[in-house]
């Protein structure tokens, strides 16, 4: 038996009063997800444990079968793994995200945590400028190919969690920048980076075209590295992950899983779904577990774009779930699990720890008989898991 896991960021949400108390998932036309739910085993899963900050670096780890409370290392470490950046003793990897800030009264407010979906070329240009112009010799910068990049620092000790920019849209940054002594060097680097970006020709050109300047970086994601037991040793099966997410890539590589590069995979709604599906089909020939991750629903959710979220859900259903479900049925030896990574609410423009729905097809035993795939299966489905790792173990062990 082979196992196909389809993870769609941003599927689930809270109901919208102005949409007759329906969620975007209930508003979307999802015939493929509905068909699987009607014929499969459904239920709920909590992918974000209370003990850790909410975010994809936690939920991705859980859905790959690892308990975040035991194995979570911090997003910076996973990004370093994804980029193949070696770390010397005493070095701390931090996510260095390009963002767009706008003035508001006596503060600067986060307008776009993706820096306008920053391109690879632009990312490499701006990272090179930081590397060249930052005065400190105890830091080095590495492009992640977009807004999400890496800074490696020596001699920093940061005692508390730094909040990622994903959930800060519309918020002033002052209250989220620690001012205590351990963070002063980091704050100095942030201020220095803002000056460099302000004077860069790239941003002057953007402003001349009436585009927002990419005018700041945001540091986050530190933590202590913890080795992951190899996926194959843990589950007795070779695993592969198809994703555009650097965080997911880093976790998968740390677990010894195959992580191919997929041309056209962007992590945004414009991602090349067909290329991901082709890659997954090929991997099913050589691996027992194939995970296909589609992240485009998260940015539109955290930006509060309800209509775009509905469109992303429909694309996931039509372009990923449909063809891969048919592929699984045609092969006859493939079980499918579909779930959300974690709730990214377009209503709140924040992450949520609420349980998210899942479906397994074909089920072990009789189908649950639910009407379709939406948030209601978290109540009406037959199986409920308190952790993402628990769901993955149950799926791969044939319990579902």
Give a count of the beta strands, DSSP E runs of length 2 or more: 14
Tell me the series of helices and strands, N- to C-terminal.
Answer: EHHEHHHEEHEEHHEHEHHEHHEEEEHEH
Q: What kind of assembly state do the chains in view correspond to?
A: single chain
**Low-confidence blocks of residues:** none
Structural class: alpha/beta
Q: What fold name stands as the CATH topology of the largest domain?
A: Alkaline Phosphatase, subunit A
Quick one: CATH class of the largest domain?
Answer: Alpha Beta
Shape: globular
By CATH, the superfamily of the largest domain comes out as: Alkaline Phosphatase, subunit A
Distance between the termini: 13 Å
Task: Just name the CATH architecture of the largest domain.
Answer: 3-Layer(aba) Sandwich
Instruction: Compute the number of helices.
Output: 15
Query: How many discrete domains?
Result: 2
Radius of gyration (Å): 21 Å
**Percentage of residues in strands:** 15-25%
Give the proportion of residues in helices: 25-40%
Main-sheet strand order equals 8-9-1-10-13-2-14
Mean pLDDT: 96
